[in-house]
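Late entry, written up from scratch paper. The run itself happened at the end of the previous shift, but nothing got recorded in the book at the time, so transcribing now.
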Amino acid sequence: MKNKKLIHFVESLILLPMITVSQAPMGPTQTALNTVSFPQIVLSQKLNKTADSMNSIFAVDSTEKDAKNLKALELENLKIKETKAGLIDAYFQRRDMPLYGYGMKMVEEADKNEIDWRLLPAIAVRESTGGKFACKKATCNSFGWGSCKIGFKSNDLAIETVARNLGGNNPKTANHYDKKTTLQILRAYNPPSIVPLYAEQVISIMNIIGLEEPTETPVVAI
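Output as recorded:
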């Protein structure tokens, strides 16, 4: 009963000013208007405050959901990178290749330059057996880059440089590699006129390393 009375009372606050205003003579004093409309103004203010509070709650909730979705996406991307890196390192490790351990670096640079994640390790295998027979006169060059005339301070720097070029992100070589398929990149890297079937050989190695979209993380022998 108390709740019903409270509801009727609130309804009367909304309806009463409307009825009173309609029956009031033309030209009421400002004081009379203020007195009649006061309950409605107070109620309107309370409703506006409630609406603002609800909007604030929904906004916070939406922000939290966006943050959670972003975190989930980041974790999923990391898992995919780890899977790819694991496949590269497993390939190198089974064959006792010096580039074992550089899987994640190759994946990160491939991702940054938008090239197939298997391309760098496959080229390294074709050019130097994964670093076993790296360029003699050019340090840390397992990719045959620059016809073995260009050396690097580290394998990390070599991976970064080759990936940037193959991705078409070096203005000096972009006309050879930019917006090209993997097959086209390889035929520019080592033309068939110089090394027949070079591109096909590298792609064959890529397929042995793993699928373009891997689904499982390999178990690497210690």
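Helices lie at 2-23, 30-94, 103-113, 119-128, 155-166, 174-177, 182-189, 198-209.
(Scratch paper discarded after transcription.)
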